[in-house]
Known about the structure:
Elements: H1 2-21, H2 33-36, H3 48-76, H4 106-122, E1 147-154, E2 170-177, E3 182-189, E4 194-205, E5 208-219, E6 231-234, H5 238-246, E7 258-265, E8 269-274, E9 279-284
Antiparallel strand pairs: 1-2, 1-9, 2-3, 3-4, 4-5, 5-6, 5-7, 7-8, 8-9
Helix pairs in contact: 3-4
Amino acid sequence: RAVTCACLTMALTLLLSTAAASLVARGPRFAPAAARALRSPVPFAAAPAAAATDTAAAREALFAAIADFRAAEEAEGKTSVDFGVKGGELDKKSRAPADLRQVWTGRVREAARAVESAIDTLAPLNPTPDATKLLGTVEGDLCPLHGAWRNVWTTAADASFSPNSTRGDANVYNVVDGTRSRITNHIDFASGAQFRVLLRATALSPLRVGLRFRFVKVSPPRPILGLLRTIVIPVPGPFLTRVLSLLGRGPKEGPPPAYFDVLYLDDELRVHVTGQGNLFVQRRAPWSR
Length: 289
């Protein structure tokens, strides 16, 4: 019963988290220079060979910065994130996913700044100016975003897990189905519980993907009452989120659309920033193309 209750609590919290993501303020609040540069893209000017050399060096610098960040976390302790506002998962004011840059300190914060600097260096070298090409078409499996991506670094509290928390440790990855124009966020907990968050994806520009949350699927480590193995929870749609904003449960300006901007994308590495300003660095999963 305890495990079942815990899973139900986790499911409801995740539902509120994903619903809140559609109620956040428009535009990045803490976006790095790379994200701001999207408003005035700089055309590629480097020769192919030189560009390839610069890109390889910038990629390696990013991976090295992430390795240093992990070392800093091991030395000073990983930030514990639990459910809801009190647990640090959601921002108190907007109820959007909290930004861990607001709580990181010391060596961890300095290492995070180094990762952001590496992202700023890498973003102008993006070799994929049309990341959303063919998204939502019959040839969607050729979309550069198509496939499975695993998280290697993020500033988003709702996508950060550790064993020193009630939520527990988890593996997080993201699967883009270019043909069906949908994205599924996978969260596999060490306890055996699994969450699947399904989103509708729309190409808003060559580098921007609009998102609409559809439902959350929860699979507890053990069947509920010995029978129920999976729970499907619909996520509140635009009408309900507008009602929530009118009732004071969301920003007064109303629910702007959720989205992410691609900062860098190649066959193996993806970097993007969400509408809330949270950064994600992801690598293509080994089983993905």
